[in-house]
């Protein structure tokens, strides 16, 4: 942080900015441009926090009691189990914290600065005093700055002042101290205009720093599912405690040792309460977020991961999201002639011809005017790198126009020498046009370009063969027909106009129409497949665009978004419709064309009224309300403004529609995985409780000793459940309908599956136990070892079934989740060691099993899983 000092700021050159050497010096001197640094939770603290848990307290008290009773082996083993549980919990939480940290890093705001004469994008925290920053509508201001140049700049300062109307700003000239009208404040958003400003204070010294920690961060806010699971967890704790108390009390009443029964109760509570569940849910959400990041979708809010799986409508912008945003002018209409333009992409090699003859702008005044307009009324730029390679920056529509001019050998530099640009009325999606005022030392001109409807409204005459003629109705119709023809061929059309400014008339009216340019913007290659995938998955893709109805229609048909039953509605038609009518037809609308950002808000509302779960994309500053309103607000990583990014729950790093679909798929996989391990954990825990409960009901001896119950818990609850959260998703995950927004996690009979399997595990373990007691002449140690192995093995078999709710493990393949194979193998090794290692036998009260005894174990634990898997295999 730091404050303005005239010396450090003055040596900022308005053209070149600071040098990178100077930036380094200033960073060292003033530190980073940050408000409050988020305190990182230290790993030690995370580890210690693992012990601050109800279950751990119960276990610790059991340890102390065991130690007092002289049962040192029990006490030590329980302690080891507590530590191992804590280590597992630590690994889960540490990973979560790390991944959230890296998300915060990635989502941190950026700034456009000019350093060493080049415009670069840096992290806002790396901005230093004296830096020259470029700001434009939609940008978040990185530090407090004084405006040096710019037009019509307005800034939303509501977070500082509470004032909802954006403040007008102007450049600061002369010696006078800059006033608030010359200053832009950190954290506020530029809503209009663009300009250059110099940083005067950073970090805690900024106005924002003074009112401190308003910095938007990604918080590990709990998702609705996590909240519901927390509630469920509470109920389970009460339920388990009651059952454990019943088991303990009936045991004592039947004359069992009270101390032993107390330990049984405690261990059972530990085994029955799925204490790892919340942590695994968080880990699987966080891991999912990381996987999405690899696929270019950056999730800013954890609940979005869950909502993604419910998405059934995706409203997507056209330009750049469905299309490549790499435009090439193909046709020009000027002086009633339709010219052809050759060449591909941004390659400046190509020609402009009329009836096969090259056109020379020097010999063709109207054509020349069109080229001048397209170059002067243009914010994109062309530069050359060290190797003389051409580099473009700016809006692709405008780059395409610069490339078109290059093909006609019209050079921007030469034009800018002739005309000095005095003012710009920037493009915005509501007006769908822009204009500039320039001066050639004699006359001032206005040049304008934009959507045909916007430009034509402001024209009163037309330039034809060097003559200015009245723009009558017939000519208007003719121009509109040419525009429609181009649009039908999926071309994006820009209209051009100009006027000589007389008597200071700088209004955008009485313009002279010059002509049109039609450019292609090819669809992104992967979008067609993504659209088809959406449809199979029961998701409706909808195009929302500011572009012409016919252009939108042509591209939507090519991408199969629009089929023969689908409707195309324009913003104008939408304005004439009341909500009732819109609701009645919204199911059929596939394309909204020529819409303004404000329409988007209405569209989201309509979908939500009809119960849809809607994802909506946006890039411009005015898209923010719609993005905020949508169930999943999606902003563009490349072209998106800071304001939209902050309003969104997900950022597309590649601006690509296919990425939204990939994220939806990932959202479904994560949700499925959560169901999988909930099914596993709850059915296993039910099985464990029932084993103890049934035996006490049947007046059998205690089937498992406390230490054995804790072992079952350790071998089955930890690693296998985590491994289930790492499932990569089933092949047909995008062939199901989206789930409902309010659907319970236990829907589609999951409850039934959990209870039936829990009961079966309990019954089988008790059956194996009582059968062994009978077969082996009441050898209780042996019977308990068999019960222990049956209970563990039932769960290790069952975990494979939990990998899918629709397919048999024989179809999915055992090795498709290698983590699970390792987890199960390590649990089995643990069990075998406990059964055969003489030292562990003493701790866990077990004994060697022979083949017949293993046959009993496997018979009782494996049969149900085997039958069940065959049943699903043949389905
Ligand atoms: P989408 O919402 O799918 O991204 P879009 O990019 O076509 O659609 P806008 O950027 O709002 O939507 O553009 C609307 C219309 O404004 C375009 O059809 C075009 O005629 C015109 N237009 C677009 N960019 C410019 C520009 N830089 N200068 C002047 N007119 C433009």
What's the number of extended β-strand segments? 28
Proportion of helical residues: 40-55%
CATH superfamily of the largest domain: Calcium-transporting ATPase, transmembrane domain
What compounds sit in this structure?
Answer: adenosine-5'-triphosphate
Structural description of this entry:
The chain has 32 helices and 28 strands. With 875 residues, it is α+β, with helices and mostly antiparallel strands. It has four domains: 220 residues, Calcium-transporting ATPase, cytoplasmic transduction domain A (Distorted Sandwich); 286 residues, Calcium-transporting ATPase, transmembrane domain, CATH 1.20.1110; 146 residues, 3-Layer(aba) Sandwich (Rossmann fold), CATH 3.40.50; 193 residues, 3-Layer(aba) Sandwich (Calcium-transporting ATPase, cytoplasmic domain N). The strands form four sheets. Strands 10, 11, 12, 13, 16, 17, 18, 19, 20, 21 and 22 form an eleven-stranded mixed beta sheet that branches. The protein has an eight-stranded mixed beta sheet with strand order 8-28-27-26-9-23-25-24, with helices on both faces. Strands 1, 2, 3, 4, 5, 6 and 7 form a seven-stranded antiparallel beta sheet that branches. A hairpin with a 4-residue loop joins strand 17 and strand 18. The two termini are 66 Å apart.
Key words describing this protein structure:
transmembrane, 875 residues, Rossmann fold, phosphoprotein, 18% strand, 4 domains, binds adenosine-5'-triphosphate, 48% helix, 28 strands, ATP hydrolysis activity, alpha+beta, eight-stranded mixed sheet, transmembrane helix, Calcium-transporting ATPase, transmembrane domain, HAD-like_sf
């Amino acid at each position: 942080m730091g404050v303005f000092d005239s010396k450090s700021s003055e040596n900022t050159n308005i053209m070149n900015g600071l040098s990178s050497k100077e930036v380094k010096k200033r960073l060292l001197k003033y530190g980073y441009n940050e408000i409050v640094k988020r305190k990182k939770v230290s790993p030690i603290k995370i580890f210690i926090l693992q012990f601050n848990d109800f279950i751990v307290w119960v276990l610790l008290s059991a340890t102390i009691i065991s130690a007092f009773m002289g049962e040192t082996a029990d006490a030590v083993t329980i302690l080891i189990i507590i530590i191992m549980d804590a280590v597992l919990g630590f690994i889960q939480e540490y990973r979560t914290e790390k991944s959230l940290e890296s998300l915060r890093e990635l989502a941190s705001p950026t700034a456009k600065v000019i350093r060493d004469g080049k415009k670069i994008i840096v992290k806002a925290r790396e901005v230093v005093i004296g830096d020259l920053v470029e700001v434009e509508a939609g940008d978040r201001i990185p530090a407090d700055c004084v405006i040096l140049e710019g037009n019509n700049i307005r800034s939303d300062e509501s977070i500082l002042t509470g004032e909802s109307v954006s403040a007008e700003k102007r450049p600061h000239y002369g010696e006078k101290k800059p006033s608030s009208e010359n200053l832009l404040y950190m954290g506020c958003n530029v809503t209009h205009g663009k300009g250059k400003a110099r940083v005067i204070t950073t970090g805690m010294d900024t106005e924002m720093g003074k009112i401190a920690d308003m910095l938007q961060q990604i918080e590990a806010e709990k998702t609705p599912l996590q909240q519901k699971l927390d509630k469920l967890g509470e109920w389970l704790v009460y339920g388990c405690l009651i059952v454990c108390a019943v088991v303990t009390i009936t045991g004592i009443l039947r004359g069992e040792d009270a101390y032993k029964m107390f330990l049984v109760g405690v261990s059972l509570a530990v085994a029955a309460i799925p204490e790892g569940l919340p942590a695994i849910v968080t880990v699987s959400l966080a891991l999912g977020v990381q996987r999405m990041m690899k696929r270019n979708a950056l999730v800013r809010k954890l609940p979005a991961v869950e909502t993604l799986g419910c998405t059934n409508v995706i409203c997507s912008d056209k330009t750049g999201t469905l299309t490549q945003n790499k435009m090439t002018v193909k046709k020009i209409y000027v002086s009633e002639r339709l010219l052809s333009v050759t060449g591909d992409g941004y390659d400046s090699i190509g020609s402009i011809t009329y009836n096969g003859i090259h056109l020379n702008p020097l010999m063709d005044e109207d054509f020349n005017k069109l080229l001048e307009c397209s170059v002067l009324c243009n914010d994109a730029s062309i530069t050359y790198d060290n190797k003389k390679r051409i580099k473009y920056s700016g809006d692709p529509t405008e780059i395409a126009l610069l490339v078109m001019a290059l093909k006609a050998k019209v050079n921007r530099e030469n034009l800018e020498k002739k005309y000095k640009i005095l003012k710009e009325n920037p493009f915005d999606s509501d007006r769908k046009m822009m204009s500039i005022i320039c001066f050639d030392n004699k006359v001032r001109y206005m040049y304008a370009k934009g959507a045909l409807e916007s430009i034509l409204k402001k024209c009163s005459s037309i330039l034809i063969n060097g003559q200015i003629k009245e723009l009558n109705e017939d000519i208007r119709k003719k121009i509109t027909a040419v525009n429609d023809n181009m649009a039908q061929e999926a071309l994006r059309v820009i209209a051009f106009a100009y006027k000589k400014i007389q008597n200071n008339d700088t209004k955008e009216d009485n313009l002279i129409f010059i002509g049109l340019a039609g450019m292609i913007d090819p669809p992104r290659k992967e979008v067609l497949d993504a659209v088809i995938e959406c449809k199979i998955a029961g998701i409706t893709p909808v195009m929302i665009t500011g572009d012409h109805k016919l252009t939108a229609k042509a591209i939507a048909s090519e991408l199969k978004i629009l089929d023969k039953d689908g409707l195309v509605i324009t913003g104008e038609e939408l304005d004439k419709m009341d909500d009732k009518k819109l609701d009645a037809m919204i199911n059929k609308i596939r394309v909204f064309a020529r819409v303004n950002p404000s329409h988007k808000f209405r569209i989201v509302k309509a979908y939500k009224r009809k119960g849809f779960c809607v994802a909506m994309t946006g890039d411009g500053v005015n898209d923010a309300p719609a993005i905020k309103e949508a169930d999943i607000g999606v902003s563009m990583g490349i072209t998106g403004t800071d304001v939209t990014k902050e309003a969104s729950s997900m950022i597309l790093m590649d601006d690509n529609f296919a990425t939204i679909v990939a994220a939806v798929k990932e959202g479904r996989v994560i949700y499925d995985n959560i169901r999988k391990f909930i099914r596993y954990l709850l059915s296993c825990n039910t099985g464990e409780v029932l084993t103890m409960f049934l035996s006490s009901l049947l007046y059998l001896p205690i089937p498992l000793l406390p230490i054995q119950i804790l072992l079952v818990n350790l071998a089955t609850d930890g690693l296998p459940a985590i491994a289930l959260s790492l499932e990569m998703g089933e092949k047909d995950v995008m062939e199901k309908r989206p789930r409902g927004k309010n659907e319970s996690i236990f829907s589609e009979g999951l409850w039934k599956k959990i209870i039936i399997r829990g009961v079966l595990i309990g019954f089988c373990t008790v059956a194996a136990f009582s059968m062994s007691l009978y077969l082996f002449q009441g050898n209780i140690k042996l019977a308990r070892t068999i019960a222990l192995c049956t209970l563990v093995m039932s769960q290790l078999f069952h975990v494979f079934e939990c990998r899918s709710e629709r397919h048999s493990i024989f179809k999915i393949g055992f090795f498709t989740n290698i983590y699970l194979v390792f987890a199960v193998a390590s649990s089995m090794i643990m069990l075998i060691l406990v059964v055969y290692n003489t030292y562990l036998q003493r701790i866990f009260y077990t004994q060697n099993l022979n083949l017949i005894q293993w046959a009993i174990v496997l018979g009782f634990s494996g049969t149900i899983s085997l039958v069940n898997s065959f049943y699903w295999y043949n389905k």
